[in-house]
Design goal:
The protein is mainly beta. Helices cover 9% and strands 59% of the residues. Strand 20 and strand 21 form a beta hairpin. This is TIGR03016 family PEP-CTERM system-associated outer membrane protein.
């Protein structure tokens, strides 16, 4: 059973993890390129700021009724945003250093780092490129405990996650006949849970695709070899290769299929070798540039899977529906988070009203800054584990924008069934690893602009997690409302109220939490 209550104690900062020097290098290389003379131009922007916040939290440890502790929390967070956009180099860098001081019975100190870095470099046009990314963030380690999106709570369910990825690759066109790419990537995932969950991976990807000269019949050849090296467990290898082809009946409708072979290496739950032939068949339908539908069915050694993706865009709305089945690991979702990027969502929503991409991105950045929207929209929380799972994910969302308000609504239903065995190390952790889980829920976000300087944001999220292996059920509801006012171009004030209600089918899993915050954001 997962422990959800933490006794009052001084909170230690999350320990630094192995590969930190590698992470520093991944961060430093893009920054040096951005600040070098050949990149420095009007397309480089450096935006420092500082956040000061005072918060009152009536249940700072997320404890059950009768054991709650309240605290005043003082926060000081310097921030730095760097953006560069050149033909041969692009960079997005966002770093925050959050310093928290807790008064009263919960007297403690905590420092959190938040980093989001992505860069693309072109060293030799139409040949040699480099992608790099790095991230540091805090998140919940399992849905079967107290879930909160606030770093101001001293929850035992929060962890620090550090990831990086660097990928040099060759990409070139063979006239009008084909496009080829050969990519090697090195990535790392480290958590504050200890070395058990730390891992590195080396991945080789290769693909060759038909070019514009193949208008009616296209083709592709793909190969993947990924080796995951865990610090405290045997390595996991994932390999597959395939040949695919498609036939275009028209510019609107096409069918596609593929054949291939998968050869993986991990201890399966049924004892059989995780390898075998694979094939797929499907179609795509794009009647307009605003409507699309694709459906694919695939035969694997572990069973049949299906993928559906549908979208519809009008002048003032975006609709999407997606269903996907496939093997996945926790580290996959850390490196490519299963979240809805707020900026990307707004980009699709405003594509019709603001046709110029650069002007649209400027409007999106200004909107997110003025309303204080989160960088990503809430999505389900998965237990941190080194197992391989078969995940079945159904997600739907709709966004509607008007003259003074924008509404984003999403639903999800996700199940995870174990494909690889628990190891002895995994089974002894206090996370209560749960082999087969199901999460359902939804989120709604509403922004309302009262004036060019004043806005309000209302967010409500619901998540229900159930374990088929032991019957544990957790239900979490999180409501937040924020009022923002821009005093001048460099100073924004915000007043926030958040209510968190967590219930479970056993007493120690029940708690409520309320917090009120007043924030000043200074742009330097």
């Amino acid at each position: 059973m997962v422990t959800t209550m933490v006794k009052n104690a001084t909170v230690r900062n999350h320990p630094r993890k192995p590969c930190q020097s590698d992470l520093v290098g991944i961060i430093g290389i893009p920054l040096m390129l951005a600040l070098s003379s050949n990149v420095w131009s009007d397309e480089l922007t450096v935006s420092p700021s500082i956040v000061t916040k005072e918060t009152y939290n009536d249940n700072v440890f997320l404890s059950q009724p009768g054991f709650t502790t309240s605290s005043w929390i003082t926060e000081l967070t310097p921030q730095l945003v760097i953006k560069a956009s050149e033909p041969s180099f692009k960079l997005n860098f966002n770093y925050e250093l959050q310093n928290l001081h807790y008064a009263g019975d919960a007297h403690a100190e905590r420092t959190n780092q938040m980093l989001d870095l992505n860069s693309t470099s072109s060293f030799v046009k139409n040949l040699l490129y480099l992608d790099a990314s790095a991230a540091i963030n805090q998140q919940n380690s399992t849905p079967f405990a107290g879930i909160t999106n606030s770093n101001a709570t001293l929850s035992a369910n929060r962890l620090e996650l550090r990831t990086y990825s660097v990928a040099p690759y060759l990409k070139t066109n063979f006239a009008q006949e084909a496009t080829g790419e050969l990519r090697f990537s090195r990535d790392s995932v480290n958590t504050s849970l200890g070395s058990l969950y730390n891992s590195n991976a080396n991945t080789v990807k290769a693909n060759l695709k038909s070019g514009p000269s193949f208008a009616t019949v296209d083709w592709n050849v793909q190969y993947l070899n990924e080796k995951i090296l865990y610090e405290a467990e045997p390595a996991v290898t994932l390999q597959n290769g395939s040949f695919g082809s498609g036939y275009h009946f028209s510019s609107e409708f096409a069918i596609n299929g593929s054949v291939g072979y998968e050869k993986n290496n991990y201890p399966t739950t049924n004892g059989t070798a995780p390898q075998g032939n694979t094939w797929s068949a499907g179609f795509t339908w794009t009647p307009t540039d605003r409507t699309s539908l694709s459906v694919t069915g695939t035969k694997h050694y572990y069973g049949d899977t299906y993928t559906v993706a549908a979208s519809e865009r009008t002048f003032a709305s975006v609709w999407s529906l997606g269903y996907n089945e496939g093997l996945i690991t926790s580290r996959d979702q850390f490196l490519i988070p299963a979240t809805t990027n707020t900026s990307d969502f707004l980009n699709s929503l405003w594509q019709s009203s603001i046709t110029n991409p650069e002007q649209r991105q400027q409007a999106i950045d200004a909107f997110i800054h003025s309303t204080g929207l989160p960088n990503t929209l809430t999505t389900p929380v998965n237990t941190v584990t080194n197992q391989v799972f078969l995940q079945k994910s159904l997600q739907a969302s709709v966004a509607v924008t008007g003259a003074q308000n924008t509404v984003i609504f999403s639903l999800f239903d996700i199940t995870r069934d174990e494909e690889s065995l628990n190891t002895a190390a995994n089974s002894t952790t206090n996370l209560g690893l749960l082999s087969n889980t199901k999460q359902t829920g939804g989120n709604i976000l509403w922004t309302l602009n009262f004036s060019p300087r004043t806005s309000a944001v209302f967010m409500d999220g619901y998540n229900k997690a159930k374990s088929a292996s032991n019957g544990i059920t957790y239900t979490n509801n999180n409501f937040t409302t924020t009022l923002n006012h821009q005093l001048d171009p460099k100073l924004r004030v915000s007043l926030e109220f958040q209510h968190l209600n967590n219930s479970a089918n056993f007493n120690t899993g029940n708690f409520r939490d309320n917090l009120v915050s007043f924030t000043l954001l200074f742009s330097l």
